[in-house]
Amino acid sequence: MLRYLLEKEFKQFFRNPFLPKLVVAFPILVMLVIPWIMTMDIKNIGLTVVNHDSGSAAETLIRKLESSSYFELDGVEQDYNRALTALEYSETDAIMEIPAGFEKQLLAEGGAPVQVSINAVNDTKGTLGASYLSALCAEFSREFAAGNAQAMSATVPNIEIVTQNRYNPYQDYKIFMIPALMVLVLLWLGGFLPALNIVGEKEKGTIEQINITPVSKFMFIFAKLIPYWVMGLLVLTVCMLLTWAVYGLVPQGSVWVIYLFSILFIFAVSGFGLIVSNYSDTMQQAMFVMFFFMLIFMLMSGLLTPLRSMPEWAQYFTVINPPRYYIEMMRLVYLKGGTLADLQTQLWALVAIDAVLGTWAVMSYRKRD
After folding, report:
1. Within 95-122, where are the H helices?
2. Residue 157: what pLDDT?
3. Measured CA distances, 176 to 80, 154, 182, 205 (Å)
4. Binning pLDDT at 50, 70 and 90, where does residue 159 land?
5. Which CATH superfamily is domain 45-147 in?
């Protein structure tokens, strides 16, 4: 009986002129395009320098800022008010004011203040821009001190902090996002397609033919889930191959752990999709409901923002969110080389969620004569 049900499901899938193309194109587009545009790396920040000093140190600092990929020099002004007007009209993003006597103060005291004004309408851009400026000025200060140690009366500090970036040594935001994007692909394909399955049969009237057969509810739902298991694992394989070929990123841990968790995750999101489909009367209704829940799942999964940054009440809700555990697994295995022993919490959480959603999907399906 299961064999014929699966044959029906696969025939329905391949007869659809759109779905096979979507399953192929969606993961390719996501993995090739999204990592380049979904980034927290802020570059080309517009910077205007107000220079009141005629010394070579100020010129060296300006050249250093100009050569950085983080800043785009919009101009060097003598009048601060003109630069402030440009900031107010969003013609520049930041102003650095170098005071008169900048070089003399550096030589005499080992340091000199500069004023930075940031357009903080975009808080993230403003905060990161100020951080980048601070880092570049600190680097310039060390280089200037090393090159003028004999001429400086102040003692050059001899304590230096050496930072080691573990798991992402070049601080490439794509490395952080790519494993999560694989989760996103499986979440949307594994959730939306099942949600449109049963309700699609309701609209076509083919569900009535199933209702008069002796097929059990469990067998019917199980036959609905298996094609999405197969599709999800194939899509995951395509994503992993693209990640290796394009970005050179390979799992630091076991691939089999990834596939084990993928089976559990696909079961969870597909089961949820079938639940929505069971309760929906039209495909439009199912799409709206799934879109609402997919946004909630995505925003409360830790994909874009850390879970600890959420309010405490929101963190409690993430306990029942399947993507949360799958994203934690992907980043731990892909980037840190985590093992199954490190993932016991995530493993049993997904097993429990699968049990609840699977039972709910079977119980919510009503066979009507």
Report:
1. 102-109
2. 47
3. 40, 42, 12, 46
4. very low
5. abc type-2 transporter like domain (3.40.1710.10)
Task: Name residue 72's beta-bridge partners.
Answer: 46
- Measuring CA to CA, which residue among 22, 1, 21, 86 is closest to residue 48? 86
Backbone angles phi, psi at 170, to 5 degrees: -95, 10
User: Do 301 and 324 form a contact (C-beta atoms < 8 A)?
Assistant: yes
Decide if 326 contacts 183 (C-beta within 8 A): yes
Distance between CA atoms of residues 115 and 351, nearest Å: 56
Q: Give the distance from CA 120 to its chain's centroid.
A: 23
Average pLDDT over residues 203-215: 76
Tokens of 214: 């002796």
Rank 50-59, 104-113, 254-263 by mean pLDDT and report only the highest: 254-263
Angle at 106 between CA 101 and CA 111, to 5 degrees: 120
Q: Are 224 and 9 in contact (CB under 8 A)?
A: yes
**Domains in the chain: boundaries:** 2-38+170-364, 45-147
In this structure, the number of other CB atoms found within 10 A of the CB of residue 188 comes to: 19
Paired tokens of 360: 């709910």
Q: Look at residue 368 in the predicted model and tell me its pLDDT.
A: 59
Alpha carbon distance 323, 295 (integer Å): 11
Amino acid in the structure at residue 71? F
Alpha-carbon distance of 228 to 230, in angstroms, equals: 5
- The DSSP call for residue 341 is G
Residue whose C-alpha is closest to residue 331's, from 175, 185, 186, 165? 175
Q: How confident is the model at residue 17 (pLDDT cuts 50, 70, 90)?
A: confident
Q: How many CB atoms lie within 10 A of CB 138?
A: 10
Angle at 273 between CA 287 and CA 36, to 5 degrees: 70
Mean pLDDT to the nearest integer, 28-40? 86
Task: Say what angle helices 19-37 and 2-15 make with each other, to 10 degrees.
Answer: 70
- Coil, strand or helix: which one is 180? helix
What global pTM score does this model have?
A: 0.78
pLDDT of amino acid 164: 65
The candidate with the shortest Cα–Cα distance to 266, out of 299, 312, 310, 228, is 228
Q: What is the pLDDT of residue 302?
A: 86
Q: Which residue has the tokens 């909630």?
A: 296
3-state SS assignment for residue 154: coil
Alpha-carbon span 297 to 303, nearest angstrom: 10
